Amino acid sequence: MATDLNETISQDSNSVQNERIDFDAWADHVLEGGQLTREQALQILETDDDQLLHLIAAAGRLRTKYFGKTVQLYFLMNAKSGLCPEDCHYCSQSKVSDAPVPKYNILKRDKLLDAARVAKERGAKTYCLVISARGPNEREMAAVESIVPEIKEKYDLDVCACLGLLDRQQADRLRACGVDRVNHNLNTGEEYYGEICTTHTYADRVQTLRNVRDAGMEMCSGGIIGMGESLGDIVSMAFDLKDLGVQSIPLNFLNSIDGTPLEGKTDLSPQDCLRALAMFRFVNPTRELRISGGREIHLRTLQPLGLYVANSVFVGDYLTTQGQAPDEDYQMVKDLGFEVTTSVGE
């Protein structure tokens, strides 16, 4: 009877094994220049928790191939807060938000320079200058054009500007003043976009990225998961970013802020976040992948596993929410045996 039971267990084990995805073979395919299909990307998001470590290890091979053991740090400066006429449902600064966030126009030179000093002291490679707006007005454009050369000369930082929708002329002006990269997130898949914003379209965001690309700057664009989108919407976003040729992809996990239309929404597990990071790495293997807002809330103690797949994090606070203490990030990077990439052009 014992022999029969052992045979049954063995057969069941083989059956389960046959259903397991060979993520290492997928990684081999990508490393040889191949690409995943949308169906395979969806399978990653549907992976059982039992296969999660196998998935992370395979995605980690791609990270190691293109980024080694390096980690890039980004520092975020909320240069203009609140006062936004758009209705992005996730955002505490939008016109449909009742969240008690600070409201101020673009900061003066001294405050922007002081924030750049902090970015440098924290080992950041990139200083992200962000304003809340549909797009920059002339006063805001002039302020950015004035401060960016000073930041770069004094602190030798890359500068990423996030100013809302941009036309080609504005993009050309940002390039001329020394902006290295512009952030403008797609936020979600095209089919779901109308559920989270109605005051501008997905096509508007794509056009801004094209204007940035055509002006000769790098594109930084990612999104937010956990807003009620389908797994297919997440896959669509990953492939759209690939097709656009985006160089840097920040992946956020919804921090459902009280007072916003998405308050109280907490659908993500740490495993969901790790699967999403792995899928983005497989679809965009050579691109910088950043673990962004909400990592402390949703990845929690599994944050280090995320850096086996991603190669970048924000150090410090986000726009209107607090981040993990910088010393904890430094320790996490050190414990992983990774090193912070600090010099521009490294």
Automatic annotation (TrEMBL):
EC number: 2.8.1.6
Binding site for [2Fe-2S] cluster: 128, 160, 220, 290
Cofactor: [2Fe-2S] cluster; [4Fe-4S] cluster
Cofactor binding annotation: Binds 1 [2Fe-2S] cluster. The cluster is coordinated with 3 cysteines and 1 arginine.
Occurrences of domain Radical SAM core (ranges): 66-295
Keyword ATP-binding in record: no
GO molecular function: 2 iron, 2 sulfur cluster binding; 4 iron, 4 sulfur cluster binding; biotin synthase activity; iron ion binding
UniProt keyword terms in alphabetical order: 2Fe-2S, 4Fe-4S, Biotin biosynthesis, Iron, Iron-sulfur, Metal-binding, S-adenosyl-L-methionine, Transferase
Metabolic or biological pathway, per its Swiss-Prot or TrEMBL entry: Cofactor biosynthesis; biotin biosynthesis; biotin from 7,8-diaminononanoate: step 2/2
InterPro entries given in the database record: Aldolase_TIM, BATS_dom, Biotin_synth/BioAB, Biotin_synthase, Elp3/MiaA/NifB-like_rSAM, rSAM, rSAM_sf
Binding locations of [4Fe-4S] cluster: 84, 88, 91
Record carries keyword S-adenosyl-L-methionine: yes
Transmembrane segments: none
Catalytic activity, reaction form: (4R,5S)-dethiobiotin + (sulfur carrier)-SH + 2 reduced [2Fe-2S]-[ferredoxin] + 2 S-adenosyl-L-methionine = (sulfur carrier)-H + biotin + 2 5'-deoxyadenosine + 2 L-methionine + 2 oxidized [2Fe-2S]-[ferredoxin]
A GO biological-process term: biotin biosynthetic process
Family: Belongs to the radical SAM superfamily. Biotin synthase family.
UniProt cross-references to NCBIfam families, sorted A to Z: bioB
Subunit architecture: Homodimer.
Function, in words: Catalyzes the conversion of dethiobiotin (DTB) to biotin by the insertion of a sulfur atom into dethiobiotin via a radical-based mechanism.
PANTHER family: BIOTIN SYNTHASE, BIOTIN SYNTHASE, MITOCHONDRIAL
HAMAP family given in the database record: BioB
Official protein name in the record: Biotin synthase
Organism from which the protein derives: Stieleria bergensis
Record lineage: Bacteria, Pseudomonadati, Planctomycetota, Planctomycetia, Pirellulales
